[in-house]
Structures are given as structure tokens and as C-alpha cells.
Amino acid sequence: MIRSLWSAATGMQAQALNIDVISNNLANVGTSGFKKSRADFQDLLYQTLRSPGVSSSVDTEVPTGIQVGHGVRPAATHKMFTQGEFSHTQNQMDMAIEGSGFFQVIQPNGETAYTRAGTFKIDGSGRVVTSDGFPMEPELTLPADALSIAIGTDGTVSVLLAGENQPSEIGNIELANFINPAGLRSIGRNLFLPSAASGDATVGIPGEDGFGTLAQGYLELSNVSVVDEMVNMIVAQRAYETNSKTVQASDEMLQTATNLRR
Amino acid sequence: MSGGMYLAAAGALNQQLRLEMLANNVANINTIGFKGEKSVFRVEAAPAQTTFEASGDLTQLLSPYAAPFTTIIDFSQGAIRQTGNPLDLALDGSGFFVVQTPDGLQYTRQGSFSLDEAGVLVTPDGHPVLGDGGVITLERGTIEIDSQGAVIVDREEVDRLQVVDFPNAGDLTKVGSGRFATVDGAVPEAPPETWVVHQGYLESANVNPVQAMTEMIETSRAFEAYQKVIQSADEATSSSINDVGTTI
User: Which residues from A are below 8 Å from B118, CB to CB?
Assistant: First the structure.
């Protein structure tokens, strides 16, 4: 059968995936610490019907050949770790990372996961936990009589205890980073897991060795730009439509060919 | 039998090839750094005359072949759009990035690069992108790539991206995955000074949807026209078999 039918079908599938990625970005436009993805495509293999450069006679050669492509394939969904905007929340447990780095949290299965969402809370036993109750690593516990908490740009956590007029230091927040954050695996709940592509985590102090600094009372919003996504959606939808026209054209040509014999 | 029927069939097959080419262009309309193809129909008159001269029949001077169909890669510049991602690179002007693959050096304009687990600059399918000093390994830090391809990490130049060009359009064939390979014997050369690398931008495919749709209509109609030629030839043959010699 005519190759163009299948080529157009790969094009439609690719654009459908593109819309999937765009809609997930848009759905998470208000998710703090969310990093948008982008679908990257590559052309599929080519069939060479006539090679360029072969001789067409003793002293002439074919300058261009015939190569027929077979459509497109999704190559990657590329996570983009550009900085999201900051929103001032005045909540003393909200933290934003200015620059690169991830907060570390311990999942219930004991595995360390990484997040940019600084929406931390305090649980019943005074531990600093995520919205899902996963404790921060290294674990940080506030004394029961703490009046207020102050987080320095370098991750130093100090509390003001009842009856004292000098704050006392209770620990440090450490950040993790990866050589290739785009290779991290998203597992939902704003969490990322390392993969073979991301490399191993290196842990450090905020503000040192290329790690970002912490901002207390701020949240990092998602880095999704609604305008960009809308434009991408239009492009993807039109590309889908154009490919569907190719299917129609192929179909009509097949019909024409079938009608040759009356 | 009428030779016209085979001539029309060959023409129809060419139109089918052309639609396949258009379908591939359109399927890749959103592929970064994709270069579309153009069809070329070319009449070579010489073989027709030499083969059929002996018959002395003037009608046989018509080429018995459909015009040969070839495709050429259209290397015109695609639109450049902003992404803000530091490892997205768009080449403005002629030239290609050099990629090391298991099949040897290949060339690409698909600049959506990333780092692998060892900090090596790679294409989306994991093949290293080459600089003047070979594979480019980056430390963590602020990565800047200037307009002439210098890779700067924390204000220190680490390497320079290799950008090469080819004198003839026929030197490259497509191998898929946004890459091109050289035809035997083609040697890359330093590109003219006009190219510029834009960091944080990507080059869109250079496929023009309006042109693609117009060509698609043209292709469908040409295919239909060939069908009519085949049907007419068939009718003529049918008449000569069934009607000639019958008495009314």
C-alpha cells in the first residue's frame, strides 16, 4: 500500500502526543515547582530508491537521488528546568529555590525523591514534611515550644523558643543536584526520581558549588507559560489537521487507482 | 496494445512517490531542524530518439518514459523560535552540528541537546555532539554558548562546537532521527562566516504547509488525469477489438 498513509498516521500520532504533553503542562500551570515538558520529534528512517552519486553513464553521475521517508517518531519528552516565577506567600514554611537544586524527601518506601515544590508543612510530631506527609531529608524536627521559624538563604534553620529572646539553630536544609536534571523521572506528586540518564545526586549546601539559595516565604510557581502553550497547541492541532488531509489525499488516490478497472 | 497506457501508469507511480514524499514532509512539520524535500521532474530526451529512430514513425519520437522523478533536500532556513532552554541551539545560516554515532560522523541541525549522566552534550537519542576537542563534557554551572559556538561554563571557555558545511547539496543523505550522513567521498569544509548559533532557540522544520497542501492537490489531480488516460487507452483498445469490423 501507499507509504504516505502510514507516514501521515505517524504524523497524527506524534501530534496527538504533542497535545498530551501540552495539556499536561497546562493542567499544571498552577502547580508549584512544576517543570514543563516538551515533546521532541525526529524523522523516521528513509528508503533510498536511487542513491545520489551513483554513475548514470561513464562520466556522469546522479546529482540527487530518491529518498522516501516514513514519517516521524517522538524522540523525547524533554523536561525543562528553567526557573519558575516566585510568589510571595508570607507562609513561613514555604520555601523557594533560587537557582538549581532540589529538596530531598523520603518516600514511605524509604527511597529518596527530589522536588522543587517548597510547600512544606509541619506534622503532628513536629517534623517538616511535604503536603503528602513525606519527611524532608535530612530530617528536621521543630521543638513543640517553637514560636517562629527562620530559614536562611544557606539553609540554616533557626527557631525562636518560648521564653527566649535569642533564636537557636536546629539544623540545615540540604539540596541535591544532578548533572542532567532533564533525565530525571517524574513520578507525580511533584516528585522526581533519579535515572541512569540523570546521573547520581550530589548533595550540598544552598548557595555553594552552584546550588541555588533558599527564599523563605516564597513559592516557586510552575514554569509553564500559558501563551507559549496555547501557541504550541495551535501548531500541534494544525499539524494534526494537515496530516489528516494527507490521509485523505492518499485515500482518494487509492480509490482512483481502484477505479481504473471498471 | 497502447503504449500510452504504460506511460500513464509510470506517470501515476511518480505521483504516488511524490505524495509519499509530501506525506513525510507534513508528518515532520513539527520536527526540530527537519529539512523538507522537493520533487524534481526532469525530461531526458536523448534515449527516446536513439531507440526509436529506425521505425521512422514520427509519433514514436515522443519519450516512452515518464519524466524521471528525483527528490532533493531543501536546505533552506527554518523559522527560529525561542524556548529559553540553555541547551537548545539553533543554527542561523548554513552549516551542521557534528554528531558521533556508531555509524561514524553524522550531521544535524536538530539542536535540542541535553547532557547525559556523565555531563556529555548529547542529541535527544544520546549520541555525543562534537566540539573542536572531541566530545564536549560539561561541569555543573552556568552554561553559555556564544554566537560562534564557544561553550562557556562559569565564564570559562571549555570547548567550541564544530560547525561544518558541504559544498554540494548532493553530498548528504538523510538517515532519519534528524541526521544526515555523507555520500561516499564527500568532505565537510569550514562553513562560510555567516552562520550564528542562537542559545535558547530552536530551528523549526522548513516545511511550508500551504505549499505542501497545494502540491498535494496537484498530485491528486495529476494522478486522476493519468487514470483518465489509462481509461481512454483501454476504451480505444476495447473499441478496436469489439467494434471495428462489426456491421450495423
Answer: 179, 199
